[in-house]
Amino acid sequence: MNYFKKILLFITPYKKYAYLNIFFNVLYALFSALSFVALIPMLNVLFEESERLYTKPVYEGLGGLKDYIGSYLNYQVSMYAGEDEMKALVLVIALVIFLFLLKNIFNYLAMFFITFLRNGVLKDIRNKLYAKITELPISYYSEKRKGDIMARITSDVLEIQHSILSILELIVREPLTIVFTILVMFGISTKLTLFVFIFIPISGIIISRIGKTLKRKSDKVQKESGEFLSIVEETLGGLRIVKAFNAEKLFIDKFQHSTNRFFRFSNSLLNRQNLASPTSEFLGILIIAVLLWFGGSMVLIEKTLNASEFIAYMGLAYNILTPAKAISKAVYGVRKGDAAAARVMEVLETENTIKDSPNAIDKASFESAINLTNVSFKYEDEFVLKNFSLQIPKGKTVALVGQSGSGKSTIANLITRFYDVNEGTIDIDGVNIKQISKTSLRSLMGIVSQDSILFNDTVANNIRLGKPNATEEELIEATQIANAYEFIKELPDEMQTNIGDSGGKLSGGQKQRLSIARAVLKNPPIMILDEATSALDTESEKLVQTALENMMKNRTSIVIAHRLSTIQNADLIVVMQKGEIVEQGTHNELLALKGSYHKLVAMQSFS
After folding, report:
1. Is the pLDDT of residue 245 over 70?
2. What count of other Cβ atoms lies within 10 Å of the Cβ of residue 311?
3. Which CATH topology does 369-603 take?
4. Which residues make Cβ contacts (< 8 Å) with residue 550, sequence separation at least 6?
5. Yes or no: is domain 2-348 CATH 3.40.50.920?
6. Rounded to 10 degrees, what is the CA torsion of 480, 483, 487, 491?
7. Cα(314)–Cα(183) distance, rounded to whole angstroms?
8. Average of pLDDT values for 115-144?
9. Which CDD domains match (predicted)?
10. Is residue 448 within 8 Å of 550, Cβ to Cβ?
């Protein structure tokens, strides 16, 4: 229950709804008991087990409260009905209907107010989870499956929502219904009620034994839900490859194995959960049967209980069954909810390793240079950068080249603080980037990556990502610089055209030019281009290269290049190998060295 207690903290903003729910639940529980108690004096009158009273009784204090209430109701029935039994019967029926009506109105009002609490908590947990998901560093997701994260924000949160309702019923309405009912039962017959209490602990032990394994089984179900969601996400993301390699059956089998496991786990969980209701009902009826025998002997043989009281008592005893069943279900719900809460809290309590320092500054401009000094970094066990040092002066274009795995993209990840260095420092204008707020640091930078990451939205909204308030004129200017305006004009709704999931309605070159337009509109002083043309055909590459040259004018640019033709005019070319610099200079200087750069150029057939 530890995780579930943490989830209950989300109720705080909605406590007024909780108080209203509790208030109406108290009234519901009270009228649940009263609706049966009201029958006793009236049944006495109807069956002529007590004489009718035509003199108003006098209240003589709490000690005689039970007798006073009975006498008062007797007096009211007698005065209203006189000698007419049918008139008395109509009054009995009307009063019972009225009490049950009030009981159900209070029940509705209790559920009405709890709805706002439940849905409010659901909204707040999801909002906080989503905020946490966007806040956590990229390294967190290299260890997690996306489908598992999706399962936590969907099915796990829903499970918590249902459990919150259960716990509130568990601690308020149902126990109060039982307490009020038992108090009245004691009022009718202490002996009979004590006899009932012999069987209640036995029932509780049986029900608790059934629920012990629920949390473990629920955890398996939630994890498997995340597993098959991950398979769906991977399949949709790589559908072209799946089809191209005729791998449909492989993925279908993989998905079916997961859903089969989910099927088994769910059956086991639900069957155990479903056992709660019939078990508690059977045990309840068993108690009722024993009561009929024991109470019947008190009426027929001992004559210590009259028939009217016994009828009402049996109604009260049966009235305990419904809340008892609800409590047993709520206990199971809480166990399931605790498993879901553990998965949700695991994400919410994950520490963000890349966070602003307490005295972080907001840096609004870039003045002189970016310096990487003795930087070493590893993703896991092996260092991908070793004692790396480099200066990138303002206004210059610095290109990083080398074989795959040499550490080029890692430098971009470190400068933007997607990851933090293990050793050494990175500073901008002499200020360590760890002392600069992440928001202001990334505001100084624009990124165009190899994979054009676009969203299922309009062209305009994709470009406006870094500058939401951009005008139409600014959009057009950015797309013209990015060499994208011509193809945008030919789209059905121009800037307002939806480009589909991941920009699927556009070609690779068009997507990349939109990414460039997005970076241009942001207008940052530092531009990072991570193999921005490597995935394009020759014609698209020329269009994109022109767009990149337009964008890099008067900016500091860090270009990670695979195609060396794109960086011949760079102010400095840094050749990397296994996380270290092996050569650096201009294009012509490096060719003259006849070293690693010359070999790379020769392999790509450039001179």
Report:
1. no
2. 17
3. Rossmann fold (3.40.50)
4. 481, 482, 483, 520
5. no
6. -50
7. 14
8. 81
9. ABC_6TM_MsbA_like, ABCC_MsbA
10. no
